[in-house]
Specification:
mainly alpha; Ferritin; 11 helices; 60% helix
């Protein structure tokens, strides 16, 4: 598993608002997703990983969000044919919204959970920066089609699970990167093929980048889930199944992208249990 080295060769600069966890919380509270993504991408993380042991108080109304898109229950969202411009834009908008949520999820993990190894924070900072890139690529593509983020309604399933698991890092690792985000490994190839079928080669290339990076993001979730299971002396398959029940997580249904899931660090025992379920 790759990590981004963050040197620690100088004291914190108070003008930059403290350490990386404080910066992550500041960014999470920003309302404009475009500004948030740009600042995540631009932030120089060469400062020390200070505050690793420090509890940071939770502010109200996380995460910061724009007034649009309108958030609806998934059952209220319309499915549009990708053969029309509006239908294809709606699909790209849905993907853009997923990446906006993914930025927030990575930033939330960074600030919320204290006392972990340096590598944990390096890993999730890398995830935040790559999710910001994905958002920018998709939003630029959407704008090129004559639309913008917020022009279509969306749902809030990813952040809802983040709220449910905010008190337990093991549950967060199990049910966000390893469950909800890992569904992207299964779904992305089919979505890519839909875009190719209507001549959207640019959109398909963006999804190639996203799938490549998301394998790494799920691998990070897998690594820290297994690390926590070992630390708590839990058997991973049993622990995962218990968490699915306790937090009422969705039971995954196939077909599964087994090659991508293996690259992302799922064990054969985990894959067999997932198929059996």
């Amino acid at each position: 598993m790759r990590t981004i080295p963050i040197p620690c060769d100088k004291p914190p600069n108070p003008d930059r608002g403290g350490g990386l966890r404080t910066q992550a919380l500041r960014l999470l509270q920003m309302a404009s997703t475009q500004d948030k993504a740009a600042q995540v991408r631009a932030l120089d993380a060469s400062q020390c990983l200070w505050e690793l042991q420090e509890h940071l108080p939770e502010p109200a109304q996380l995460p910061g969000r724009p007034q649009r898109p309108l958030l609806l229950h998934p059952s209220q969202l319309k499915t549009r044919a990708v053969g029309t411009l509006e239908g294809r834009a709606g699909l790209i908008h849905a993907l853009t919204h997923i990446e906006a949520n993914a930025i927030n999820l990575a930033l939330d993990v960074l600030w919320r959970f204290a006392g972990l190894p340096d590598a944990f924070y390096r890993d999730w900072w890398r995830v935040a920066q790559e999710e910001a890139l994905h958002f920018e690529l998709l939003h630029a593509h959407l704008v090129g089609m004559g639309f913008a983020y917020g022009d279509f309604p969306a749902h809030d399933g990813l952040w809802d699970m983040a709220e449910r698991t905010k008190g337990d890092l093991l549950a967060r690792m199990a049910l966000v990167p390893r469950t909800l985000e890992a569904r992207g490994l299964d779904a992305t190839p089919a979505v890519r093929n839909r875009l190719v079928s209507v001549g959207d080669q640019a959109g398909a290339k963006i999804l190639d980048i996203i799938l490549r990076d998301e394998i790494g993001h799920v691998a990070i979730g897998n690594h820290w889930f297994h690390w926590l299971c070992a630390k708590r002396q839990l058997e991973p398959v049993t622990a995962y199944n218990d968490l699915v029940v306790r937090y009422q997580a969705p039971v995954l249904k196939g077909p599964f992208n087994m090659p991508a899931r293996r690259k992302a660090g799922f064990t054969e025992a985990e894959l067999a249990a997932m198929e059996a379920a």
